Amino acid sequence: MSEPKNVVIAGAGIGGLTAALACAKKNMTVTVIERAAQLGEVGAGLQIAANGTHVLEKLGLGKELENIGFRPEAATLRLGQSGRTIFSNPLGDAARERYGAWYYHVHRADLHRILAEAASANPNIDLQLGKAVTGVVENAGVVTATLSDGTSMTCAALIGADGIHSSVRESLFGKDAPRFTGNVAWRLLVPAENLPADLIPPHATVWTGPKGHTVTYYVRGGELVNFVGIVEREDWQVEGWLESGDVKELKQDFASWCSTIHQLIDAADETTCFKWALFDRDPLPVWSKGRVTLLGDACHPMLPFMAQGACMAIEDAWVLATELSKADDSAQAFLAYEELRKKRTARVQMAARANARRFHKGRPAGQLTTYGPMWLAAQVKPDLLNKPFDWIYGANVTKA
Ligand SMILES: Cc1cc2nc3c(=O)[nH]c(=O)nc-3n(C[C@H](O)[C@H](O)[C@H](O)COP(=O)(O)OP(=O)(O)OC[C@H]3O[C@@H](n4cnc5c(N)ncnc54)[C@H](O)[C@@H]3O)c2cc1C
User: Fold this and answer.
1) Which residues contact 3 (CB under 8 A, 6 or more apart)?
2) Is the CB of 392 within 6 Å of ligand 1?
């Protein structure tokens, strides 16, 4: 490593903070510029599968993750209207044995907090809040970022981890709006103590239905149930972790669904009801220009239907830091990084889109042809249900 690496990261989300920790671990000095004036209690549940857990453990956060996480016992698919189970496949110890790390459910705010605390405690990381990166240019090998407070800073390399509406992406490749997917996500947190004991099993459960699906799982060590309700709707195109929703409207969207879903909604803390229009983008053919690159939702935003957006950002972070630490030149490192990441992240983006079609089956014929074979596999050869996930959960970028 001949070039001194002072790296600037735009965005202190899950991806940006993980990248900061991974770069600092490889002896780089990192400045993280975050638009928000403070890092707070934002978001709801996230599933962190083994492929994400490997990286967080390697960054020394295994114990913290265990403290904030909930380990689901199974992955379950149910029909949303009748409540009938199609299959229930073990996670927990079985997933750990298969993939070498735990499958966790976490509250996004908890994961974000442990990352931010680790970053703040790291002498190689300078976390600066309340300013945005507004533009990036590279001249004679030096990258200059302009900031919203009127100042600018120079660095050897810059990483745009600034989310789906990335300003860094726009600086590199021009304006290009994300695509509304026609899906809206309702989000809700339900105190577990408000629920009958066995209403929601300790599973990652997807409930399928006509033009929508819901997902339920425990977070915060089992204190809260996270509810995500997806509906196909064209009339709401506002996104963000802070767009409040109306519980009555949510109930209306799921009017024909089974009583478990309604009991859950009725027991929720209404202040946690958010309504989020889901956008994505097509895979981006090139992620980097010279000494500037992108990471996470900035380059591969996806529907949350594979529960892998944050995990892909976490994987990106590790691979990017590894390549930066190996190469003499950041530009070469970024080319190597994107070559290692593009195919996999594009495949997950497409798989997430395909799940919209798979989960949103209302008619009996569609349900029978889609879920019948899954039900049968669960009866005769349950391992067949794991195989489609091996390429995702089975990857360990820290060993590559
Ligand atoms: C309903 C829903 C459910 C989901 N469930 C899962 C799941 O179960 N598992 C999973 O792995 N993923 C899940 N995801 C996806 C996951 O939340 C995202 O993929 C992930 O948070 C992306 O992280 P990121 O760091 O790339 O971007 P972000 O989290 O968007 O962070 C970007 C950061 O950059 C900051 N910023 C923006 N612009 C600028 C700027 N110009 N300058 C400086 N800072 C800036 C923002 O304030 C923010 O802090 C879900 C998403 C949704 C919507």
Assistant:
1) 156, 328, 329, 330
2) no
